[in-house]
Amino acid sequence: VSFGVAFLIAGLVFLGLLSQWLAWRVKLPAILFLLVLGILLGPILGWLRPDKIFGLLLFPTISLGVAIILFEGALSLRLSELRGLGTVIQRLLSLGVFSTWAIISVATHWLTHFAWPMAILFGAVTVVSGPTVITPILRSARPNAKIAKVLHWESILIDPIGALLSVIVFEALVANSAATASLGAAGLSFLRIVSVGVTLGVAGGFTLGWILRRRVVPDYLHPLLVLASVLMIFALADALAKDSGLLAVTLIGMVLANMRDIPLDNILDFKESLSILLISLLFIVLAARLNLTEIRAVLGPGLGLLVAIQVLSQPIKVAFASWGSELNWRERVLVAWIAPRGIVAAATAAVLGQTLQAVHYPHAALFVPLTFAVIIASVLLPSLTARPLARLLHVDEKEPQSILIISANPVAQAIAKALEQAGFACLLLDNDFAQIRTARAAGINTFYAHPVSVQADRYLDLLDFGYMLGLAEDHALNIIASMRYKPEFGLDHVFILTDESAIAGRDRQQVAAPYRGRYLFGGDATYVRLSQLLDNGWQIHTTLLSESFSWEAYQEKHRSGFLPLFVITGEHILRVMLAGESIVPASGDRILALIAPSAA
User: Cation/H+ exchanger transmembrane domain: which residues (predicted)?
Assistant: First the structure.
């Protein structure tokens, strides 16, 4: 503190960055490191005292930060995606939310002796999960694709739903607490808060969307326009009806997310970076405000709530959601076990808890510490145990097996069909809608976007993918895609078709090895050659080798024409045939190869 407040703020930003980086390196949610850092700097060492340093600006600033975080979360709630999800995910977001809310509320009332209204509010705050805590756990645990999909999409969509539920419950609680005349007066106060939040949120969202769609403001000002508008509407709503601002900004995000032809890419990029910064600062500052006495007071109830969540709430929620679904009992157990609470719970609790203390609500001082105790325990438990449990239940992926294929051209479609028949999920990534439409008609999974677009970066889930095949006709696109996805899959799992410059060996034109994937198939396997072979009647066949039909016998049988593409080992591991390398398949392996009509 002797260096000044400016140095302190700069130090917090830097420490937040280090926490985010460390979390990325060890594949754990950043929230753990941020909370530990805040508790260390605040209650333990006493170096960071937010109330003393920031004074009256602390909670207005926190409120504005929470507003931005909730708005950014609401931008992910697209109703079209909600309708298109599977039955399990839809039930998790409906029956699951309400069953979890009810069980946590009852458990909170019994374990902490909170009054029923505050226990119900605590239950609403802690129903949320969040992709920032789920994604690192999934990367570490590596569950199968069904489990990963359910948890990933639930975490994306439940944050805005939970935030909206928390705001409505909180507004009802405050309205009831502030109104002393009668129940009618309390109801009118609640209606005023909700009406102001809904009116300003919906009107502000549509107005902002109209301005963005009409390009009234130049593109480079769009992020600043949205930020200023969200903060202004939040402040205006709170001025007209206190505590209506959170509802307003959540609805602004939902409205913008579901309007058509709104240029949101730059806004989402800006808001995502800003949210990471705000989340880092908020967690450190809020954890630093905790009191060691209060922390010790909530440790027992916090652990009790964790047991209630893991033993009662989650199994019941998953049972409701997965009834009659394709999930087997092992998969349901792991889905129920992974139940971390994240950023929205902590940020929402911080602002709501301050207001509860301001109105002298019983036990209000324990609201925030209890939330943080549940967050830490619920993140730490699955982070340490999900991987061993997945292995014990035999629902883990030994190695990512799905294949990302660049382009949806005929060559890519033929290879994708053969790989899917062999048991490998494939996804064709292309921005040519005509080819995407043809692939979809053939029953192949597709993603309509340029391989290095903002759309692909934001919405393409690579969790289950272990390979990239660059099969585009445009060699430059394969090179760009390999550079983009090499950090995701590793150099040994990124492959592209060769081109004429590589065949000729001209160093002036040939792309250096560190900047491209490994060349697929034979040394002359260009897109043109593969396309010509398919046009001439060559087909991809899968053949199982055995003791009586060895690799040598296979070569002898197809000596009139074949091009080996892949080898699938007896352990169902994919091996790509590469230019300049030879693989000797063994008995029990399967060969995928292009076979000439005369050799079929």
Answer: 17-390
Angle between helices 245-258 and 145-178 (to 10 degrees): 140
Secondary element (H or E) of residue 482:
helix 475-489
The H helix count followed by the E strand count for the chain is 26, 10
Query: Is 82 within 8 Å of 93 (Cβ atoms)?
Result: yes
- CA-wise closest residue to 245 among 283, 288, 198: 198
- Three state DSSP letters for 48-116: CCHHHHHHHHHHHHHHHHHHHHHHHHHCCCCHHHHHHCCHHHHHHHHHHHHHHHHHHHHHHHHHHCCCH
pLDDT digits (tens, 9 = 90+) for 377-392: 898 898 888 888 988 9
Residue 86 clears pLDDT 60, i.e. is over it: yes
Who contacts 549 (Cβ-Cβ below 8 Å, separation ≥6)?
Answer: 543
Among residues 100, 99, 107, 106, which one has the least CA distance to residue 304? 107
d(C-alpha 299, C-alpha 287), whole Å: 15
Phi/psi at 205 (5° precision) = -65, -45
Rounded to the nearest 5 degrees, what angle is found at the Cα of 83, between the Cα atoms of 81 and 88? Answer: 100
d(CA 403, CA 319): 32
| pLDDT tens-digit series, residues 388-446 | 898 899 888 766 678 999 999 999 999 999 999 988 889 999 999 999 999 999 999 99
Please say whether the beta carbons of 460 and 448 come within 8 A: no
CA geometry: angle 161, 162, 168, nearest 5 deg: 90
Prediction pTM value = 0.65
User: What does the alpha-carbon distance between residue 494 and residue 491 come to, in Å, rounded to a whole number?
Assistant: 5
Residues whose CB is less than 8 angstroms from the CB of residue 60 and which lie 6 or more positions away in sequence, other chains included? none
* Span 175-185, average pLDDT: 55
